[in-house]
Amino acid sequence: MVKGLFRKLARANLVRNKGMYIPYVIATVIMSSMYFIIINIVFSKSISNMSFGPTMQAMLTFGLVVMSLFTIAYMLYINSFLIKRRKQEFGLYAVLGLEKRHVGKIILWESAMLNTASMALGFLFGVVFGKLAFVLLLKIVKTAPNSKYVLSPSAFVVTAVIFAGIFVLTTIYNLNQVRLAKPVELLSGKRKGEKKVRGVVPLTIIGLILLCTAYTVSITAKIPASALLLFWPAVILVIIATWMLFTAGSVFLLRALKRNKGYYYKPGNFIAVSGLMHRLKQNASGLYNICILSTMVLVTVSGCCALYFGQEEILSVQNPNDLVISINYNKNYAKFPNADKARETIDALAREHGVAIESMYTYKSLSDNLIIKNGEFIFKNKNGDISVGTEDYNDNYFYVYITTQEEYNAVTGEKEDLGSHELLLLTDDDIGSHSQLTIQGTTYAVKEIISGTKFTAGKNSVSKTRLFIVASDDAAALELRAVINPSAGSSSNDRGKCFSFTTVINLKGDNSDCAAYSVALSKQLYSAATDGLDTGMGYSYRNIFTNRQQSNGMFGGLLFLGAFFTILFLTNTILIIYFKQISEGFDDRDRFVIMQKVGMSDDEVKSTINKQILIIFFLPLATALLHVAAAGNMIIRLLEAFALFNGGLTIVCISATSVVFALAYIFVYRFTAKAYYRIVRW
């Protein structure tokens, strides 16, 4: 062989087939640069000094794993389109005298040139746009704590290894396609369609049953815990059902139209149905992939956007008040030990950080939990367990706090006077009407059920799934705790008898000043309040300001990662649509020429083309939008598990995402359709 012949042939092949390989290179560049950007952010520790930085890094690392799986799968899938278009060319080489090993060398040279250029451009764009992506991340998480973007050598190495592995896999696949096929098969390879679909009727029926089951599960989901358990089974059912319906259901429908002689034996319908029968059989796999990718884009973007834009509502639900500090004491049941020193610390730090105390109150309580289902109270047994199913436990769980009338009167300004077995119930949830409670054989009279008190309605929101029980005094509170949870009230369990002293503070001031104040107070209040006391117990501290920073980091990180996944899914969707247009253009050209030769006018042929193309390429979009519409209720319930109860916001995000995606899909269709029409033009 002439020296350098294979290299020259490979270069000539790439130039001649640039219409297919340029989009492939662009997609590879996009995916490799995105992968490099994310892994560089993780490896360079650029976000480690942010609030919630380690968790964000963990999310990005998990995203990289998922992204790697999708990237490998779809690079192999897209490569199959390319090699199918090239089989006739490789068969021609065999006819001209080249052996399969010679064709293999050409493929190796093509792969080396193509993939080296793709990786080089991927690294270039990754470096150029990496800093922009990092600045965007800081903007999304609403913080910039002197973070500096740096390039990590490990990011170059890992990205190169991953994509080199993908390129090796695609090259091996291509070589095997040539090695295992006969020259005659290679010459007709691009015309080879999908295998005949078998079991059309049972597959269609099963697909419809699975899809209806998944839709029913989604539409009827009412409780977040149930939605979390059922989400992935429903997703799997939808994926399987979609494959069955695109593979067999479309053929079943077209066969039904074909059997309708009054409809089928009309010139326009005859050509359209016959053409669709061939196209749907041949392209079911590609259309199914476009549909699933489109659904992934819609669900990912709408969910991430709803969480990000609804995070203030989530914070208000999780933090009814600005700051809540709870200290448990083993003894010393007095009204907040060292209260004067604690108040001095609270006021001094407020002046130091330039914030004002809007309101503050303290109370002591005993805490536990129970189940309230349809107004029925279910308490713990002697082992500290509640005998209900997992779903009931998750869906009807209530935190219960037992306090005294002295604490209640001090906080609310009321003058309640309760008997030894008389109770007040404080809650903003609907727990039904109760005149008495019988617990472990002991009956208590319920004097009143009250909502809207400071105990359950804070500055920012009401406390859902919370129940405060007011007893007459400490002794009555301890007795009530012993019957609500016998294991906590046992004589050997001193911890179960310990009161928790809670301080609730609401602030006025700049968010950053309030956050700094909250951090300083968390470090100093405990030591001030417990100075000289033998507490022997725990300490909990929660505030909305540092939680807001953490929320920005977590939901901002999700939105950032969701944007990258969206780009990944869109890139693959666009590429599949493009290659399908190209592949079908070459396959359809001869058929449309024959139609014209047998007497069809240009307008009739063009009308047939338009009808088939519109159905083929808008069927996945319509199905994806139907999937998302059916999944809307489940998405709302899933987000409620994150404490986002604004279903209207979620619907707006789903609707806006669907409209934008549909417009983008139409644009991509119009752009790729031009390539198709150029090929079939006669």
Description of the structure:
- It is a multi-pass membrane protein.
- Belongs to the ABC-4 integral membrane protein family.
- The chain crosses the membrane at residues 21-43, 55-77, 120-141, 153-176, 197-217, 229-254, 287-309, 554-579, 613-636, 642-668.
- InterPro entries: ABC-4_Integral_Memb_Prot, ABC3_permease_C, ABC_permease_BceB-typ.
- This is Putative ABC transport system permease protein.
- 38% of the residues are buried.
- Strand 6 (436-439) and strand 7 form a beta hairpin.
- The two termini are 39 Å apart.
- The chain has helices at residues 5-16, 18-43, 53-95, 100-140, 153-180, 183-187, 200-220, 224-259, 261-264, 267-309, 311-318, 339-353, 390-395, 405-412, 474-484, 511-529, 544-597, 602-640, 647-680; strands at residues 323-328, 356-373, 376-378, 397-404, 422-426, 436-439, 442-450, 466-471, 500-508, 539-543.
- The chain is built from 19 helices and ten strands.
- The protein folds into three domains: 1-192, no CATH class; 201-315 and 546-682, no CATH class; 316-545, no CATH class.
- Strands 1, 2, 3, 4, 5, 6, 7, 8, 9 and 10 form a ten-stranded mixed sheet that branches.
- With 682 residues, the protein is α+β, with helices and mostly antiparallel strands.
Defining traits:
682 residues; ten-stranded mixed β-sheet; 3 domains; alpha+beta; 19 helices
Question: Short summary of the structure?
Answer:
With 682 residues, this protein is of the alpha+beta class. It has 19 helices and ten strands. Strands 1, 2, 3, 4, 5, 6, 7, 8, 9 and 10 form a ten-stranded mixed β-sheet that branches.
